[in-house]
Design brief:
Elements lengths: L8 H11 L6 E6 L12 H16 L4 E5 L23 H7 L5 E2 L7 E5 L2 H4 L13 H7 L3 E5 L10 H8 L4 E12 L2 E12 L11 H5 L1 H4 L3 E5 L2 E7 H14 L17
Parallel strand pairs: 1-2, 1-5
Antiparallel strand pairs: 2-4, 3-4, 5-9, 6-7, 8-9
Length: 268
C-alpha cells in the first residue's frame, strides 16, 4: 500500500533547531504525534524511534527529554502502580520514552513524568509525594530552564505546568487530596499516601483552556511556532509560562477559568 509522507526525521530536527533548541537543553515534550500526518518510515515504531532520535540530534547526548506518563485510571482503585510496568496513558510517544533503556520515571502512581537523557535521574529523583510543587520534577524543570514543547497541538492544550502555578498560588477552586495507593517497592507491594491537586466538585468551573494565559504579553512574545508535516510544533521556556501565570493570577486567582465561579462554598 502506498501512502503520502508528510514529514521525515530531517524535518523534525530542522523544526526543533528552528525553535531554538540546542545541545544540553532539557525539554518537556507533549502533544499528539498523529496530528503531524504520515512519517516517511511508514511504520509506527520507526516513526517513534525517528522522532526521538531527531530530537536528540538537536539537544545531543547531554540533553534530556521529559514526557508525561500519567496513569490516572489507577485513582480510587486497588490496582498496583509499578513504575517499571504500569503503562503511560498519555499517548504512544510517552510510552515509547518510558520503555527506553535508561529512562527514569517519577514515583507517583497517577501523575508521573518520565525523563530520558543526561539529567533524567536528577529530574525524576525521589522527592515530594505531590505531582506539583517544591521538590517535584516540575520544580526541577524550572531550575533547569527547560523548554516546553507541544507537538501537533496548540501549546495552551499541553501545558501541564500551569497546575504547578495553581498550587503555588493556592487557587481556592482546588484542594489537595490524599490517596492511599498500592505501589510496588523492591521489598514488595505496600500501601502509601500520595497527593493530587484536584478541582472541587461543588464549584461551577468553566475552563478557559489557558487562552488568557497564552494571550499574556510576556508569554505571547515567548512562544515560537514552526510548521511540521500536517501540523506544527511550538516551544517556549517553562519559566516564561510560570512567570506569566503568576503575574496573571496575582491579579485574578480565577484566571485559569473562563469566568469566576458563582458557587463558592469556600467563601465566608
Amino acid at each position: 500500500m502506498s501512502f503520502k509522507a508528510h514529514y521525515a526525521n530531517a524535518d523534525v530536527a530542522a523544526a526543533f533547531a528552528a525553535l531554538g533548541l540546542a545541545r544540553g537543553d532539557v525539554v518537556y515534550l507533549s502533544g499528539n504525534l498523529g496530528n503531524l500526518g504520515f512519517h516517511a518510515s511508514g511504520s509506527k515504531t520507526a516513526t517513534l524511534e525517528g522522532f526521538l532520535a531527531a530530537l536528540f540530534e538537536v539537544i545531543g547526548p547531554e540533553g534530556t527529554v521529559v514526557v508525561p506518563t500519567h496513569s490516572f485510571s489507577l485513582c480510587n482503585t486497588d490496582r498496583v502502580f509499578d513504575p517499571q510496568t504500569t503503562p503511560s496513558e498519555t499517548g504512544p510517544l510517552t510510552e515509547f520514552v518510558r520503555t527506553r533503556p535508561g529512562a527514569v520515571r517519577q514515583y507517583h502512581p497517577f501523575a508521573s513524568v518520565t525523563a530520558l537523557g543526561a539529567r533524567a535521574a536528577e529530574i525524576c529523583a525521589p522527592g515530594a509525594r505531590h505531582a506539583y510543587g517544591p521538590n517535584t520534577p516540575f520544580a526541577r524543570l524550572l531550575d533547569a530552564n527547560a523548554w516546553g514543547v507541544s507537538v501537533g497541538l496548540p501549546p495552551n492544550r499541553t501545558c501541564s505546568i500551569v497546575h504547578h502555578v495553581e498550587q503555588m498560588m493556592a487557587v481556592p477552586y482546588r484542594y489537595t487530596k490524599e490517596f492511599l495507593q498500592p505501589v510496588r517497592r523492591p521489598e514488595g507491594v505496600v500501601i502509601e499516601p500520595f497527593y493530587l491537586l484536584v478541582t472541587r466538585r461543588d464549584v461551577d468551573l468553566v475552563r478557559d483552556q489557558n487562552e488568557k494565559l497564552f494571550a499574556h504579553p510576556r508569554l505571547a512574545a515567548g512562544v515560537g511556532r514552526v510548521p511540521l508535516g500536517m501540523g506544527g510544533v511550538a516551544a517556549y521556556r517553562l519559566r516564561t509560562l510560570v512567570d506569566a501565570a503568576v503575574d496573571l493570577m496575582s491579579y485574578d486567582l480565577y484566571a485559569w477559568l473562563r469566568q469566576p465561579p458563582v458557587q463558592r462554598p469556600f467563601q465566608s
